[in-house]
Amino acid sequence: MNDNNQNNSEMKIIDAILSDTAKPASGRTRTGSRRGRGRALRPNPPSVSENQAEVQGEAKAAAAESAEQQPAKAPARRQTARRAKPRTAAAETAAVSSETAAKPVRNAKNASQKGRRGGKTAKKLPTVRIIPLGGLNEIGKNITAYECGNDILIVDCGMGFPDADMLGVDIVIPDFSWLEKNVERIRGMVITHGHEDHIGSIPYFLKRLGTDIPIYSAALTIGLIEGKLKEHGLLSKAKLNVVKSRDVVKLGCMSVEFIHVNHSIPDAMAVAITTPAGLIIQTGDFKVDYTPIEGGPIDIARFAELGQQGVLCLLADSTNAERAGFSESERQVGFAFENLFAQAGDRRIIIATFSSNIHRIQQIINMAARTGRKVAVSGRSMVNVVAKAIELGYLNAPKDILIDIDNIGRYPSNRLVICTTGSQGEPLSALSRMAAGEHRKVSVTANDYIIISATPIPGNEKHVTRVINDLLKLGAEVIYKSMYEVHVSGHACQGDLKMMLSVTKPKFFIPVHGEYKHLRAHSQIARDMGVAPDHILIADIGQVIELDAENMRQAGTVEAGRVFVDGYGVGDVGSIVLRDRQHLAQDGLIIVVVTIESESGAVVAGPDIVSRGFVYVRESEALMEEARLLVKRVLDDCQDKHIREWSALKISIKDQLSSFIYKKTKRGPMILPIIMEI
């Protein structure tokens, strides 16, 4: 189907949906996706390096009954949200307003002032505050707090990955300082879906703020969170609650309705937050897919119903705001796989994709079953996700089609498909190890047909190209995005974003989930769709945004930023440490070791000079000898001047040696003097 025909068909569907939403709600109950049991793969501990590209790639490359539930008080590890008698969002707002009055938030410019109007005192409108603590002007680390009255609600708690200059840093998490100061007011956390940039910081959050805060999300997302908490020893203490689309959870003066959306992982949901000030919708990561692999199309009807009732503010995914048109259906990749499997002939097929893209993996399994092939999974993160998806019924694998990677030698090449991590060329991923000839079970040959079912993340192109070149040198045929349509994005393009704005009709709009250029592009789309320019805000993390029924205004800032996780250390690596690491990486290190007599200050031994990452000593003996003699002269001069303090000696050595080295080499290695006394 060409783009024009596809767009025309999609617009007809949209018109039908919008005309249907003008009718009263039918009261049908969504039962959710099928949940079955299957044989699970043997799980292994997760790998951060394998998850990294998954998160960034997704970010850069790309029920009819409402319910009400009180927060769970029992310490049960996993609970299911309770359905309640349906209420409209407008009715919910009125009820919430009467139950809990929000505390007034003073603002010098906009605060309500008492005055006489017709003999009556002006009434203060209820307010709600939106406080993004991550996910704006950056990719990843998504977390947003909502504050009204004495209550705080948290949406998502994700991690980010380090930039190239953050040497030695494993992951980046949000700064929880403001939340920690207000922990007694936090009523709960809701999670939109199970990608690392939305769940990756939960263990660190619970370790710092305590495990009494209930967490609500869909079954697969909760399952993935359980795996992370088990790894950190927190599973038995956490309060995890399973919800379904159109469930409603009451958290303090706010209530949250979960709404089904499409994304590159099952069980993705938007949240509609009813507050005393009005209804706020946060889409989470989403796209519009009318022919999804699992779970049904996005619940546009519910978004339209809420739009008719009145949406105060919309916060929407901006990742693909620069892409024209509509996002493509995941089924398009399935059609490509059908052709590629036929082209592979009798060769072994190896497919690299994101480990969390269960829909993609399902299509690989389906094609393998149709062509009589077995499927082996390689890469720890993919093994774990596939096992959990089968356990919860999100992945349907016919009996005996999945085999352990250790057993691939028992089958001929024309009966094998290997599904692997490494679509972004990560150095430690399974595909990279195959390309380097270092994989313990898979040796790539000319009899392999390799499909990279992903788009390279900006900045990862060199890594992906290196892997492709290495695979080609081994004789394999490699298929990738620029050659064939083997990947579609999980994020909404401009057409989808316009649809969301048109059906929700928000009074105010805040673009989220993206770098500044994405947020700016999305804000322009909102203007084109009729949102008033002064009702659109491109915010930043830590900014406090206060809304009432009539106004949106900036109301100060809170502590926000990045916290670096390096091994077991959380927050003990700062800008100074990173600067030192960059210095070491760029220019190397020179260590000067000298022993002096404590009373006279005379040099007893040394100075000896050791170099690491600066020059190869055996090829630079003359330079090292000159440096050694220079240090000796500096020490003799200090002795003549009766300088005995170690700090003064070290400064003199560093200053003189730095000048000498730069003059000789135009480089500035880190210089570390070590002085010992006897």
From TrEMBL:
It is found in: Cytoplasm. Residues 1-123 are annotated as: Disordered. Residues 31-40, 75-86, 114-123 have a biased composition (Basic residues). Gene3D superfamilies: 3.10.20.580, Metallo-hydrolase/oxidoreductase (3.40.50.10710), Ribonuclease Z/Hydroxyacylglutathione hydrolase-like (3.60.15.10). The keyword Cytoplasm applies. Residues 1-10 have a biased composition (Polar residues). GO terms for biological process: rRNA processing. Substrate binds at H487, V488, S489, G490, H491. Residues 140-337 form the Metallo-beta-lactamase domain. GO terms for molecular function: 5'-3' RNA exonuclease activity; RNA binding; RNA endonuclease activity; zinc ion binding. An RNase that has 5'-3' exonuclease and possibly endonuclease activity. Involved in maturation of rRNA and in some organisms also mRNA maturation and/or decay. Belongs to the metallo-beta-lactamase superfamily. RNA-metabolizing metallo-beta-lactamase-like family. Bacterial RNase J subfamily. This is Ribonuclease J. It comes from Candidatus Merdivicinus excrementipullorum. The lineage of its organism: Bacteria, Bacillati, Bacillota, Clostridia, Eubacteriales. The gene is rnj.
